[in-house]
Automatic annotation (TrEMBL):
Residue intervals of the Isochorismatase-like domain: 12-182
Family of the protein in this entry: Belongs to the isochorismatase family.
Chain ranges passing through the membrane: none
InterPro entries linked: Isochorismatase-like_dom, Isochorismatase-like_hydrls, Isochorismatase-like_sf
Any single Pfam family the record assigns to this protein: Isochorismatase
Protein name per its UniProtKB record: Isochorismatase-like domain-containing protein
Keywords: Hydrolase
A molecular-function term among this protein's GO annotations: hydrolase activity
SUPFAM superfamilies: Isochorismatase-like hydrolases
Source superkingdom: Eukaryota
Amino acid sequence: MARSITINPNLALLIIDMQKTFESMAKPLIPEINATIASARKANIPVIFSQHGHENPDEEESTSVLVKWWGASGSIKRGSADWQLLPGLDVGKNDPVLSEKSTYDAFHNTRLKSLLDSWNVDTLIISGVLTNLCCETTARSAFVQNYNVIFLSDGTATASDAMHQGTLKTIGFGFGQVMTCADLREKLAKIKGK
């Protein structure tokens, strides 16, 4: 059964890990995400970015399960070229960037929840990469923490279409409403703002 979330001004748009290391998957999303960012700003909806990384992956390999899984060489070092947000992504000077993010869940050990609560957000819009890792984990975490979730089907990407589609089905079944960026922008255009 499809569920529909009422679109209201108590929204926030989270763009997850649109970084150089994920360029092949993330770069094609930029036009849709930037158009969605513009619509969110017009409706006075806050936009938040996350930037995944590790201070010293070589040292963290003994303590971080995520770094163990991917290996120090497969992990993103904070401050490196791979850690940088992609050029062309519309990051505003006042947009919070969760550069402290170090695991799949953008809520874990970051300012995300405190930001959302300070803005009285009840619905989190999720976009970025990777669909089935950081985006899905954050969507599940948001749901468990009692936020409504909107998950952008063409505003997220991962390594294969099968993984992408699997996550969209899972999110739509049990965690949030899946919609296209264009559908969301159409709904945002009807919001008068806060």
